[in-house]
Amino acid sequence: MKPLFIAGPLLAFALLAQAQDAAPEAASETASETAPFRLVVRYDRPGLQVPHWQITVPLHGMAEYTGKPVKGSDPGQVLFRLSGTGRARLGTLMGRTHNLQPCETHSKGIANMGTKEVEYAAADGTPVRCAFNFTDNKPLSDALDYMLAIAGTVQAGLELDRLHRYDRLGLDPVMIRLTEDVKTGRAAELGAIRPTLESLATDVAVLERVRTRAQQLLTMVDQETASK
Q1: Interval 186-215 mean pLDDT
Q2: What is the pTM of this model?
C-alpha cells in the first residue's frame, strides 16, 4: 500500500466524501427524521477473529455492542450513541423490509456468509424476527451491511485500545486499515470510538502518522455531528 502524503484536512474531506459516496441509499434516507425503533442484530461466523457479536439499538438512548472474540482475547462491550443520520438510515431501511420478509433466499449453492439473526420492532409495532445466511430483501441486506460496518468500527477501536496499551508499533497498520475501510464503507459510525481516537490523537508517545490519522477521523466525526 502506498503511503499517504495528502495534507491532513484535505484527506479528512476526501475520506468523508468517499464514505458518503459508498452509501447505497439516497441522502434523504439518512438525513430525515424517523420514528423510534428497536433493532437487534446477532452475527455468527466461525473462523473470524470475532466469530460472534451483537449490536442492540434501543428505542432511545445508547446502542450497545457486545462481542465474543476467539479464546485468549478479552470480550468486547461498547456503549455508543448512534448518529442521527445513522439512526435515520437504519429506520428508513428497516421500515422498507416488509416485516423482514422475504428472509432467507431460495437460491441454492450460496456460500456460508455467516448467520445473521435480526429482531426489529417499530415503536408501535409487534417485534418480528428473521435469521438468514443470505437474503434477497435489499433493504434488509443494506441495513445489515451498515450494522456490519458499525461492528467493524467498534472491533477496530477495541484492537486499537489493546495495541495502545501493549504494542504501540502495531497501531499503524490497524489505523491504515481503518482509514481504508472508511473510504469503502466497510467502517461506519466513527463516533462509536471517539474516545479511542482522541486518546491516540493526543499521545505524543505514538507514531506521528498514527496521531495524524486519528485526528483526521475525529474531524470526520465532528463534521458529521455538525451536519445534524
Answers
A1: 98
A2: 0.83
